[in-house]
Each structure stands twice: as structure tokens, then as C-alpha cells.
Amino acid sequence: MLYHILGALSAVLFILTWLGLWAQIRRIHLHRQSNAKGTQSLSLNQFGSSFFAFYANFMFGIAVEPFNHYLVWTRCGALLLTLVILWRIWQERRTSTTLITLVLAGCALTSGFISMGFRPFPAFAQLGTNGLMLLVTAILIQGTLHQWLILRRYGEIGALSFGLFRSILIKDVSTLLFGLTMPLNQSWPLLVLNGASVIMRGSVLLQMELIKRKNASTLRARG
Predict the structure, then answer these.
(1) Distances (CA, A) of 148 to 58, 144, 218
(2) What is the pLDDT of residue 58?
């Protein structure tokens, strides 16, 4: 019963992440309308790693028995929205790196949908999913660190959305609680990934808040 209660709560709270991603897409659009770079201050590394963090949760939900609807369909929406952001980044920058990231993300999502037809996975495939979770945790840490360094170096928030990072933090905390309702030998990769995300995304959000306050203080001093 607790599993379904926290699963449903986690799924409902995850809608905030959808809204945050949508807000980020709108923020990119608004920046482009104001003749600024739409993807200003957005780290491809950060959003690419975010995509694969969602993807790891998506695949974990597919791989476990029983099929975890709470994880799979919420992450599916996030993957599609993040794919739009990656497409926007590629559209503006047109580099080989942005193209490769976009293509890899699209292929990964397609393969994830295809994998649903091959459930239940054999044991070695489940081990592969756990390995993917750990690999993505490392990618997420370095990607989010890259975003933090960009903020620290340039001191500009640019098109980054506060709402996105706040919603992701809420999502990660709720997913951690949900993971605790599963057997630990099954859920530990989920706990590791989302625990790392809480720490790293929290650091980025804190850096954004510091920049916001610093800029506000500068404006007051000039006024």
C-alpha cells in the first residue's frame, strides 16, 4: 500500500518537472524573441546528462518486475520535453557535439520503447540496467558540475529556469522516498542516482540564487 501511495505521490509531483521543462522551453523561446541567444548559459553537458538521468530511471522502471508505471510514464514525458531542449540547443549552435547528443538521445529513447516488447528482461539485462544507472550517475555529476562552473565563471543566469531546477529537486526527493518502499537490493541504483541528483542540482540552484542576489545588490548600488 505504501508503495502505491508514494508511487502516486511521486508521479503527481513529477508533473512539476514537466512544468519546469516546459518553462525552460518557453524561456528559450522568449530569449530568442528578444534577440538574445535562446540557449544562453545552458550547458549541453547538463541537459544531455539530465536526459540520460531521466532515461536511466525510465529503463529501470521497464526492467524491474513488476513494470513500474510510476517511473516509466513520468520519465517518458520528461524525456520528450528534454529532447525538445536538446533540439533547441542544436538548432542554435549547429555543432557536431550538439548533433551527436541529439541523435544519441533520440536513438536511446526509441530503443527504450522497443525494449518494452522484450520484457521480462533476463538477469544479465537487469544487471546492465543497474550498470547504466551508475554510469548515468557519473555523467550526471560531471554534467551538473559543468553547469555550475559555467554559472560561476560568467556570473549570468541567462536562459536557465529557476522553476526547472526547483521542480527537479522536488522530483528527486519524492523519487528517493518512493525508492525506499522497494527492496533495497532492487532500488539501490535508483537511490544512488537520485541522491546524487539532489546534491548536484541543489548546488546549481544555490549558485543561481547567489548570482540573482548579487545582481540585485549591484542594481541597488547603482540606483
Answers:
(1) 25, 6, 21
(2) 93
pLDDT score of 219: 78
pLDDT at 18: 93
User: For position 223, what pLDDT does the model report?
Assistant: 62
For residue 141, which phi and psi values (nearest 5 degrees)? -60, -50
CB 179 within 8 A of CB 133: no
- Are the CB atoms for 63 and 126 separated by under 8 Å? yes
Residue 217: how many other CB atoms lie within 10 Å:
10
What's the full length of the chain, in residues?
223
Local mean pLDDT, 10-residue blocks, the chain (223 residues)? 84 89 89 72 86 91 87 95 95 93 97 89 71 90 91 85 87 89 88 92 92 85 70
Peptide bond into 120 cis (omega under 30): yes
Domain ranges of the chain: 2-222
Question: 74 Cβ partners below 8 Å, 6+ apart?
Answer: 10, 11, 14, 15, 17
Q: How many angstroms separate the Cα of 65 from the Cα of each of 61, 111, 123, 183?
A: 8, 19, 11, 12
Q: Whole-angstrom Cα distance, residue 69 to residue 56?
A: 14
Distances from the Cα of 54 to the Cα of 1, 40, 60, 156, 199, angstroms: 25, 23, 10, 26, 16
